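Aim 2, interim progress: modelling of the pyridoxal-5'-phosphate-bound target.
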Amino acid sequence: MFRAAIEKMQPYVPGEQPRPGQRLIKLNTNENPYPPSPRIRRAIARAVAGDGLRLYPRPMADEFVAAAAKLYRVPSRMIVAGNGSDELLAMLFRAVLDPGDTVSYPVPTYPLYDTLAAIQEARVIRAEMDRDFGFPVEKLIDAAAKLTIICSPNSPTGTEVSRRELIRLLDGLSPRLVAVDEAYADFARRGLLGLVRSHRNLIVLRTLSKSFSLAGMRLGLCFAHESAIRQLLKVKDSYNLSRVAQAVGCAALEDARWAQRNAERIRRTRIEVTAQLRAMGFEVPPSAANFVLARMAGIDLSTVAAGLRKRGILVRYFGTALLYDSLRISIGLPAEMTILIRELKDLAAPLTLMSPGWRIVKEDSPRPRPPRPSQSARLNRKRPALAAPA
Ligand SMILES: Cc1ncc(COP(=O)(O)O)c(C=O)c1O
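Predicted structure of the complex, ligand included:
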């Protein structure tokens, strides 16, 4: 009854969202632990007053777009607003990719790109990052895909592309499109949005879900040359942002200092947590985002993720060939991170005592494969028998 491509594809699986009332320390979907600007309550009250809910919202979210134009110093005609940046990504894939067209991105990265490519029946050219999770710029240029996506800071690695690398990519791929997913840019030193004025093939995506603490409101922004915006608008739902969302978006952008202060707090906690995890034996690539990737090369960390879950702490475990030995941990409140580190010490410390011979894959192996479940079960049974090093 459905398209063969849809029947065949795997659905995107979002991180676990607790049920109402369930008390968990939630470090699995990179939400902001601090509340949004207090101005937002008033904006919601105004948006629902009078005819607010009876009438359709403005199709182009004009005031929200104008607030974005002012804050980011980009003309309104170069901006389209989305129901979260996920919707903008979906619009981009829909507008650019026919079946059989190529899309390329570094891996590991945001798994939604795979889902959107599968829906379009596009051919994905995955460019593997190097061991330090640097960006494979030359591989992406060689791939010469119709659409190239760079997530920077990248999820789940936290690493960022440099301005010089992005310019090399834009020039090397021009006139093909390069989209930079900057969902986490506000936690980095600086973003790459400024390049949108000088590069016609650049599309930049931002979200209010992370730094503005508004994941529940679904607000995203896309910046590009006006000719690209015109095409994207053709595939947009007419009323993609509710009146409430538009009002909230304006209030949030007008109080951007609130978000900047929270981002600064998160950066400080990130530095501390990175040092603590490294002291425990995890490899942690330098993160420019509101999460860190904690890796123990060659060791399946699924049991650690499950152990944390039992103790009421959610982190993101992907279990793929590139990430089975890693946990992505969102930066929460300092008190939450103290609990995480305490529990992690308990659960992960025995793993750090394993001699390399016990590891599923040797550390120098270029491409670790995920262990078979039976293998990892065997490993866990053996763990208590391991002698502590002298
Ligand atoms: C890299 C990346 N891009 C986009 C998104 C989606 O953001 P939004 O909430 O705006 O849809 C996420 C959400 O986690 C993300 O990690």
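The radius of gyration is 22 Å. The pocket of pyridoxal-5'-phosphate is lined by residues 30, 84-86, 110, 151, 155, 181, 183, 207, 209, 215, 220 (CB under 6 Å).
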